[in-house]
Amino acid sequence: MRRDYVYIGLLIACIVGVIWGIAGLLNTAYKTQEAKANENVEEIYENETIATTAIEEEKVSPNSSFALKKHYDECNHFDYEEAELPKELVNLNQQEVETYYEDWEVEEFSKDKLVLSKEMNGYCNQHFLIRLDDEAVNVYRMGTLGELKEYKKTDIARDYLPEEDIENLEEGITVFGEGKLSAVLEDFE
Predict the structure, then answer these.
(1) Sequence-distant (≥ 6) Cβ neighbours of residue 93 within 8 angstroms
(2) Which residue from 20, 54, 60, 71 has the least number of CB within 10 angstroms?
């Protein structure tokens, strides 16, 4: 009976050895075949010109949002204005848009959104000067070159203002933005 176990053990050892040897041969054959395949691929790339497949070019959609962004060099402010997309831009690619708007830079381009930007000389149109003229408070808007243009005459009379406000208004109070302008004017009313 003990002999039977020895024969069974030898039989199992032989089977495991054969399987192990076959696995080794297969692994070596696979590596050799893989190396040859890589050599063939490299040879194909060296000898053949690879054709580029057609890539669909992104174009402006009729439903794209459109905005103009202006940066003013004197005040360092930005003016971001959303606008209706001009019909002539529909179905243009980025290069065609750049050609059409040669003075502008394409800042953002996709089928859903187009933003053009431009550097502007001067000040943006959000700078105001509040000043006491004659007997009333008036508002001036600073032009792009720094010149003052009358923007609004108010009904705020000198007679109803404290002396400190009169002194400040005679010198002029500068504000940025229409929201701030409204708030300052309300303080004087």
Answers:
(1) 57, 58, 59, 60
(2) 54
Tally of CB atoms within 10 A around 12: 10
Q: Degrees (nearest 5) of the Cα angle 137, 138, 141?
A: 150
Q: Are 106 and 114 in contact (CB under 8 A)?
A: yes
Nearest alpha carbon to residue 65 among 113, 101, 117: 113
| Whole-number Å distance between alpha carbons of 144 and 122 | 5
Closest CA to 118 of 65, 80, 71: 71
Report pLDDT digits (tens) over 21-76.
676 666 666 666 666 656 655 555 555 555 555 567 899 999 999 999 999 998 99
Helix (H) or strand (E) holding 48: none
Residue 121 in contact with residue 73, Cβ under 8 Å? yes
DSSP string, 150-183: EEEEEEEEGGGS-HHHHHHHHH-EEEESHHHHHH
Q: Which token pair is 25?
A: 């041969």
pTM for this one? 0.57
DSSP string, 70-132: EEETTT--EEEEEEPPPGGGTT--HHHHHHHTTTSEEEEE-SSEEEEEEEESS--TTEEEEEE
